[in-house]
Amino acid sequence: MKAAHLLAFMLVALLSEHAAFAADLVLEVKSSQASGRVNVALYDSATSFLRKTVASSGGDLKNGVAILSFPNLAPGNYAISAYLDANGNNKLDTNSMGIPSEPYAFSRSAKGRMGPPTFEDAAFAVGSSGTKLTIELSKGRP
After folding, report:
1. Residue 4 falls within a domain, yes or no?
2. DSSP 3-state helix, strand, coil percentages of the chain (rounded to 5)?
3. Among 91, 116, 128, 139, whose CB has the most other CB atoms within 10 angstroms?
4. What is the bridge-based pairing of β-strands 76-85 and 23-30?
């Protein structure tokens, strides 16, 4: 009988530990443009922000909306950068001053001053039960 209890306890502990890393992030990206490819990068710290992604995803806009999913995330703070690849070259194009010329956005509608926002400005929490987030792409500047 004790062995059965021990086995049950170990199974519950294993499942609980796994559940702590099974949060899903569902991201809705909105754009004034009806179609195009959206590319999204997910970051988990200030030191990795805009340098090294935790995950990335892409999807096509349909009627101005793309739904992307980031499954099995550890609960914690994350930030997102996203852009609409209007010309299909798989990079965020900028003008001669380095300002994005394609629609883009950061989580929490974060804006930078003389550059991109900080991780702290864009950070949002993903809880153990998951999170749904909506961001809207700006128009970019020519």
Report:
1. no
2. 20, 40, 40
3. 116
4. unpaired
Is residue 95 assigned to a domain?
yes
pLDDT at res. 15:
46
The phi, psi pair for 49, rounded to 5°, reads -60, 125
Tell me, what CATH number does 112's domain have? 2.60.40.10
Q: What is the pLDDT of residues 50-95, one digit of tens each?
A: 999 999 999 999 999 999 999 999 999 999 999 999 899 999 999 9
Question: What are residue 66's DSSP bridge partners?
Answer: 29
| Closest alpha carbon to 130 in 73, 90, 84 | 73
What confidence tens digit (pLDDT) does each residue in 5-41 have?
A: 444 444 444 444 444 567 999 999 999 988 899 999 9
**Phi, psi angles (nearest 5°) of residue 101:** -100, -5
Q: pTM of the predicted model, to two decimals? A: 0.81
In a domain, residue 35? The reply is: yes
Its sign, for the CA torsion 74, 24, 92, 114, is negative
Spatial contact of 57 and 43, defined as CB atoms under 8 Å apart: no
pLDDT at 128: 92
How many domains, the chain?
A: 1
